[in-house]
# Entry
Amino acid sequence: MADPTDTAFVLKGRMLTLMVFELHNPNIVQLAMRLKEHMAQAPNLFKNTPLVVDLSPLQDGFKVVDFPALVSLLDNHGLTVVGVVGGNEQQRTAAARARLALFPDSPGRAVSEPPGATTDKTEEASSTEEAPPAPAACDLVVRLPVRAGQQLYARGGDLIVESSVNEGAEVVADGDIHIYGALRGRALAGARGRGDARIWCQSLDAELVSINGIYRTRDDIDPALLGRPAVIEILNEKMIIRAFG
Amino acid sequence: MTKILVVTSGKGGVGKTTTSASIATGLALRGNKVAVIDFDVGLRNLDLIMGVERRVVYDFVNVVNGEASLNQALIKDKRVEGLYVLAASQTKDKDALTEEGVKKVLDDLKADGFDYIVCDSPAGIEKGAQLAMYFADEAIVVSNPEVSSVRDSDRMLGLLASKSHRAINNLPPIKQHLLVTRYSPTRADAGEMMSVEDMLEILAVPLLGVIPESPAVLNASNAGQPVIMDKESDAGQAYEDAVARLLGEERPLRFITAEKKGLFSRLFGK
# Structure
C-alpha cells in the first residue's frame, strides 16, 4: 500500500451526466438571439452548468463553427463548454484548437429510421429517440402571419407561429408545431420521421394536418372540433385530434 | 420626399383602378403633386376611369423605351391641379416593362418633385404586378368581401413582405393597408358576404377604409370621373375618408352597418 501522503491524485473512470447542447445553426448572431429568448424564460436555470456541444446536426455540411465565439457566448449565459461530441474532421480540429475536449461519438446514440418514414437515407439522423421535446437550437419562431403561397420549414426543430397560418400556406417542422393563431392552411409536423411530434393551434380550421406522414384533410376532421383550440398527435399509428382549453 | 403607393390585389375586377384613380385624385385635391401610373400594359383602363383616354399620345412603355420623354407622356388632369396620368400601352405586352425601366421613370418623377406616385397594379402575381409593387413604400391591398379575393390578397401581402425592393434589401417593410371594396352591409349581415371583421382577422393588416357597393362607382367610370369627386355619393365619401386616413387623420368608419328602415321609408315602401 502506498503512503497516503503520496496520493496527490487518483484517476478514476466515472459516469457523469452532462447537458448536451445540440448545435443546429452555427450562426453566432442568430444563436445569441435564440439563447437570449430562451434564457429570458428561466434566467437562473443554467447557472454554472457544464456543457458538451453536439455537432452531429452539422457534420454533413461544410459549416464552420467559430468555437471561441460560441464558448464565450455560452459562458455569458452561465454555461461552461467542456467539450464537443460528433462533428466532422474540420469541426473537431477547430474545437481542439479552441482547447475543447473531444468526446467520442456516444455508442448509445440511436440512429433510428422510424418504420414507414420516407426520410432520405443520406440525411443525417440528428434525432435520438430518447431526445426530450426540449427546444433545439434551431427552432423557428415567426411573428407575422404565414400567408397564402408561403412555405416555412423548421429544419431539425420546432416551429412556433405567433400569428395565424392562413389558407394556402404551408408550415413544416421536423419537430412540433405551435400556432398561437388560427391554423387555416396546411401543417406537417415530424416531417422527417418523428411519430411523437404534435401540432397545437388556437383555432383549428386546417386544410390538412400531417404528422410523420399520417395525414387528414379538412373533410376528415370532425366538424365539432373546427374553430376550437386543438392538439393533433399520433397514438398507435392513428391520428388523434382533440380540443383543449 | 416622394412616396410611392401601389394599389394591388392579386384578383382582378375588385376595384384596383377605381381605387387608384380616387386615391390619386384625393391626394391631389389636398394640394399634393400626384402621378398615377397604369401598370396594366396591354389592358389599359386607368385612362378611361380618369377620363383622359382621348388625350393619350405617349404611354408608360414609350417612356421606358426612351421613345418619349416623361413630360410628353404625362397627361395633366384638367379638373384637379397637380394631378397627372401616365397611361399604359394598349399595344405592347407585359414584357415591355423592365425593372430598370420602371426605376428610371420613378426616379425621374421623384426628381420632378412629385409628392405621391400611385402605381395601379394589374391583376395576378406575374411580372406586371411584381414590377408595380417592387419599389413601393406603401401598399393598398384592395379586397372584396369574398373568400377568393381575400385569399389572393393574402398571397399578395406575402409577396409584398418578401419580394419587394424593401424586403430584398432589408429596408423597413412596405406599410400595408387593407381597403375593402364593394361592401354591402345588408348582405354581410345576412351571411352572404364576409364581414369586415372576418377579413381583418385573416389578413391582419390595418384597415384603410370600406367602400360600399354603390351605383355611383359605375356612373363615375362611365363619366370618366373618379368617384371621389362625386361628393354626394357614399362611395365618394368613403374614398375621401380613406385618403384622410392615408394621410394620418382619424376618421370613424362609415357605411359598414345596414341602414335601419325608419318609419317613413317603411310607410313609403322605399
User: Anything to note?
Assistant: The interface with chain A takes residues 151-152, 154-155, 157-159, 161-162, 201-204 of chain B (CB under 8 Å). The first strand of chain B starts at residue 3 and ends at 8.
